């Protein structure tokens, strides 16, 4: 793969991820807290938001592993969807972990 094609893929992925997290992400928030759904899911499961998110992320990682190992069929759209999910969840995980650090600092 030449550098231009690779760079085009990276640019497209970054733009899609930004769009999903900044625009579509509003669907997953309560209007004020972008991590709302993960906090509620954590409370309901008795885990931390990071642990809860990691479990949700694992589902997407397993699906990617199935694709890589040939356990399921896939096309370009499925690759796009699953890799997008994994990247987005990792961005959200960063926010969750940084908030945990901030909360620890504030609460001692």
Short description:
The protein has helices at residues 3-22, 36-45, 49-68, 76-107. By secondary structure, the chain is mainly α.
Summarize the structure in words.
It is built from 4 helices and no strands. It has one domain. The longest helix is centred in the C-terminal third of the chain and has 32 residues, at 76-107. It is 76% helix and 0% strand. The relative contact order is 0.12.
Gap between N and C termini, in Å? 50 Å
Class computed from helices, strands and strand pairing? mainly alpha
Query: How are helices and strands ordered from N to C?
Result: HHHH
Calculate Rg over CA atoms. Answer: 16 Å
Shape: globular
Mean pLDDT equals: 92
Profile the largest sheet: none
Strand proportion = under 5%
Describe the protein's topology.
Blueprint: H1 3-22, H2 36-45, H3 49-68, H4 76-107
Helix pairs in contact: 1-4, 2-3, 3-4
Task: Please give a handful of descriptors for the protein shown.
mainly alpha
């Amino acid at each position: 793969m030449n550098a231009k094609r690779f760079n085009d893929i990276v640019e497209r992925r970054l733009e899609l991820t930004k769009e999903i997290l900044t625009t579509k992400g509003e669907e997953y928030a309560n209007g004020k807290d972008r991590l709302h759904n993960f906090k509620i899911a954590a409370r309901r499961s008795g885990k931390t938001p990071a642990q809860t998110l990691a479990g949700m992320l694992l589902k997407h990682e397993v699906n990617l592993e199935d694709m890589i190992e040939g356990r399921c069929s896939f096309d370009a759209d499925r690759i796009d969807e699953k890799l997008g999910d994994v990247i987005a969840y990792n961005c959200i995980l960063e926010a969750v972990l940084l908030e945990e650090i901030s909360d620890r600092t504030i609460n001692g």
